[in-house]
Amino acid sequence: MRSVTPLLAVLRAAALVVLVVAVAACSRNGAGGTGVGNLGPGGGAPGSQQEFLVSVGDRVFFETDSSNLTPTAIATLDKQAAWLNQYRNYRILIEGHADERGTREYNIALGARRGSIVVNYLVSKGVDQRRITTKSFGKERPVAICNDISCWSQNRRAVTVVQ
After folding, report:
1. N or C: less crowded end of the chain, CB within 10 Å?
2. Which residue, 89, 70, 69, 92, is CA-closest to 80?
3. Global pTM value
4. Percent of the chain scored above 90 by pLDDT?
5. pLDDT value of residue 40
6. CA 11, chain centre distance (Å)
7. Residues with Cβ < 8 Å from 64, sequence gap 6 or more?
8. What ranges do the domains of the chain cover?
9. Cβ-proximal residues to 120 (8 Å cutoff; 6+ apart), any chain
10. CDD domains in the record, alphabetically (predicted)?
């Protein structure tokens, strides 16, 4: 049991450091102000990249071998379009991704189709196409790695990166 005690002490110290850093990060806003009274409903300043990420959502998911938008994806893209039409000073990058199954070439093409369908939807909702670029990563940048549907479903996505 003595060998467990130093490990617990290290884990507790690490947890304390993480907590202190998290509290410090939450106390600041993007403009270097006090962070009091200027936060949006999602925790970021209105019009900030953080607000987009937390309040709107930066990714939509796809079914296996599909680039069709699901009702959930459409709801997220509607929120993205509204935000982007309100805050027109941002450019965005749409990243298309696929799960690990299939060849590299197939997944690059699938990621490109997913990116294109997202761009087309946002443009149909009034977002200026000149503000949007796309890139397909195929299966090269997974967010979850395992040989199971729980990971594959997280990797079949398009991510909107606010720049």
Report:
1. N
2. 92
3. 0.74
4. 72
5. 55
6. 29
7. 99, 152, 156
8. 1-38, 39-162
9. none
10. OmpA_C-like
